[in-house]
Amino acid sequence: MKQVGRERAKEAYILVIVYEHIVRDILARILTAKGHKVITCSVGFDGIRKFEKGKRKFDLVMIDIGLPDVSGLGVAKKIKTISQKTPVILIRGWDKNPDAEELKGSGADFIMSKPFYMDKTLDLVENAMASVHHSG
Predict the structure, then answer these.
(1) Residue 6 resides in a domain
(2) Is residue 112 in some structural domain?
(3) CA 70, CA 53: separation in Å to the nearest integer?
(4) Tell me: the pLDDT tens digits for 70-87?
(5) Element (H, E) at 29
């Protein structure tokens, strides 16, 4: 019997900016289990600093909308000004619902909601990665 597997996306270097340590840990575990390298931070300013230092390294950035120091939308906007090509996934909490204009203004490419489901999360990461490699 032949094993038919999905073609695996390349290993990605992913920056995860999420305040809640449990959520950050779950995301990091899901992503590293798939062979991705994950750098995490808990506040927006730290995430922006890490991105600025290593912008050539990061293939994808995941940002929680509800950060304590600066809005996740603001962080997304800043990251997009540093690197337009890097895909950004915003993570929406149960109580955080940005309006369409705010979302558009942030420059985010994708949005996902909590709670996380492993398959949906990995599919979204693969779609985000594919969008970069296929767009010229």
Answers:
(1) no
(2) yes
(3) 19
(4) 999 999 999 999 999 999
(5) helix 21-33
